[in-house]
Structures are given as structure tokens and as C-alpha cells.
Amino acid sequence: MRPPMACTASTTRGYLLLPLAVRRWCRLAAGDRVLLAVDRATGVLVAYPLATLDRLLAGVHEAVAGGEGA
Q1: pLDDT at residue 67 above 50?
Q2: Taxonomically, which superkingdom (predicted)?
Q3: Average pLDDT for residues 14-38, to the nearest whole number?
């Protein structure tokens, strides 16, 4: 499934405005914080919700906290 094509804008306060169709496709709610990353080779901008990053990094955090010398 392809993401909806959309025009986005940013505000003077640094907020990225995404159309409702894009937020629904990405399962984002208005006000969700995201990490933006770009793939220069493809020109794709990806928004990673912070909750997703927390889940992805949970194992790393546990390994660091429970590693040698902890």
C-alpha cells in the first residue's frame, strides 16, 4: 500500500502540518511528536513516532542498564 501523496507545511514555531489523510495512514494523532529522517537516495521523508522509537530501543536500554559494571 502506498502512502497518500500530500503537501505539508511548517509553522513559524517549527511544527510540521500533515493533512488528515497522511496522519491516518501513518496512524498519527494531531500533536504526536515524531523524529523526521530523510533517505537522500530516494527522497523519502519518514516520520517515526517517539512511542515506536521507545519500543525499538527498549532492548538497547535494558542491555546498557544491565551490562557489566551496572
Answers
A1: yes
A2: Bacteria
A3: 85
As a whole number of Å, the end-to-end CA separation of the chain is: 45
Q: Round to whole Å and give the CA distance between 18 and 6.
A: 8
Question: How high is the pLDDT of residue 69?
Answer: 47
44's grid cell? 523519502
**Lookup: cell for 20:** 488528515
- Whether the model pTM is above 0.85: no
Report the SS3 class of residue 46. strand
Residue 33 corresponds to which amino acid?
Answer: R
Residue 2 in 3-state DSSP? coil
Find out whether 46 and 38 touch, Cβ atoms under 8 Å: yes
Phi-psi region of 22 (alpha: psi -120 to 50; beta: other; left: phi over 0): alpha
Flag whether 18 is in a domain: no
Residue 51, domain extent: 30-70
**How many folded domains does the chain comprise?**
1
